[in-house]
Amino acid sequence: MRYWPSLILAGGFLSGCASVNLTTSEPLQVDVKMKVDVDSKGALTSRAEPSPLSAAEERRNLSHPVQALKNDRKVGEGRDGFLVLRATPADAGYADFARETVARENEARKRLFQEKASIEGKTEKDYAREFAQRAREASYPGEWVQMDDGTWKKK
Question: What is the chain's alpha carbon radius of gyration, rounded to the nearest angstrom?
Fold first, then answer.
């Protein structure tokens, strides 16, 4: 019986609420800006001049093709911090794609090593070695990694 006054009071408040019309006379419009990069095995993109992207942006754009090459066991993480083409694909188009992807990734890594080494007060070679160690640790099982003594193994 003690709850009845509260219920009546709550009902009075709720009945006094105004309704809100959420319909529109015109369809909603959405403004979207999108950039799409499409890479496919065998498709070459000519790179006569250096990339205008930062090293980090270039590496981000290359992450999928690099991982595809790692998954195919065509490339591995070298002890010097650079990607190494271990097995040239038999298909000529795929071989060109692999060579160009490795070259672009290594150029971006070189720029990254230069930037980070100067920021951290290290030599490029020291930063590259640290990068190589982190890359070995982050590699997935079955990917090729080069050990500090120069031997290759599958992680």
Answer: 28
pLDDT in tens, 46-85: 454 566 678 889 999 999 999 999 999 999 999 999 999 9
Q: Which residues of 118-130 are buried (b: 16+ CB within 10 A; e: fewer)?
A: eeeeeebeebbbb
In a domain, 138, yes or no: yes
Is residue 34 situated within a structural domain?
no
Is the pTM of the predicted complex or chain greater than 0.70? Answer: no
The count of residues in the chain is 155
Query: Residue 117 sits in which domain range?
Result: 55-154
Name the one residue in this structure whose structure tokens are 């070189």.
110
Confirm whether 43 is domain-assigned.
Answer: no
For residue 120, being part of any structural domain is answered with yes
* Tokens matching residue 47: 């790179």
Domain count, the chain: 1
